[in-house]
Amino acid sequence: MSIATSGLHHVTAIAGNPQRNADFYLKTLGLRMVKTTVNFDDPGTYHLYYGDESGRPGSLMTFFPFDGAPSGRQGTGQATTTAFSVPEHSIGWWKQHLESVGVDAGRVHNRDGEDALTFRDPDGLGLSLVAHPQGDPRAPWDNGVVPAEHGIRGLHSVTLSVTQEEATAGMLDGLGLRLVSEEGNRFRFAAGDGGPGAFADVLVTPGAPQGMVAAGTVHHVAWRAPDQQTQANWRQELVGSGVNVTSILDRQYFRSIYFREPGGTLLEIASDDPGFTADEPLLELGRALKLPPWLEPSREQIEAALPSLNLPSENNPETMSA
């Protein structure tokens, strides 16, 4: 294809209790709540966006939290690990920090020259903190909870678990990712110039069970398109190559198209524009429930159906509004 992504836009997962989810990603991982809204396809459920100061593409982890949702099963046909990028000197600090709040971080391991720390969030979602030896120039969210020198810089990579790699590799190649390393049953692909935020690892596990999407699993992985016109052109190319692609959907802060790669993982191409300041100022991101114009007439009913959620009343997430 003539169009190629520059890297990851966001990863969206399913969670259980929304307050527990917010507490972990704001207070334990030190991310910013950049948008509090609802699942546009199911407005009785929150859609919570975490990221850096402005929610730049490539920094975003988002959740649909269903209070009381059953646990899913991680397996083939889905993204099984979401990795965040941290400074090279910070892995030891993060191990100590996670263990101090009761998170089992395991041991530090090295792969592709990168130190990594793997753990799970309160719903069992597979996460990793990875230190790239060439560093990561992106700025962290400086919130006073995690020291800025150790703060998460954004997404590092996703791991797609499949039963065989050929067809998935072909799809990634069509998105502009190239194979850059291979270690046993793990194949690393890179978008653009490579580096943190531009990696996808394909893990081949033929005997593993099929994944089941519910709490503690990834719903979809989104790749970047620089603008909406490029996205529309990309959709035409995908349709022309026989891929079953959705229409372009308005997600208020970006536009989206969805399709599955042959291994089963749901993928999205999301536009970089218009961004999260489309409906609230930068300094106030994430503090109030925002609804798109077509749901605003139902605000009263939507708010009544949503579970209570204490949000930061200022930039320090230790200060939560009642």
UniProtKB/TrEMBL annotation:
Looking up Gene3D superfamilies in the UniProt record yields: 2,3-Dihydroxybiphenyl 1,2-Dioxygenase, domain 1
Stretches assigned to the VOC domain: 7-132, 154-272
- Give me the segments passing through the membrane: none
Query: Which top-level group of life is the source organism from?
Result: Bacteria
Under InterPro entries, the record lists: Extradiol_RC_dioxygenase, Glyas_Bleomycin-R_OHBP_Dase, Glyas_Fos-R_dOase_dom, VOC_core
Question: What protein is this chain from?
Answer: Glyoxalase family protein
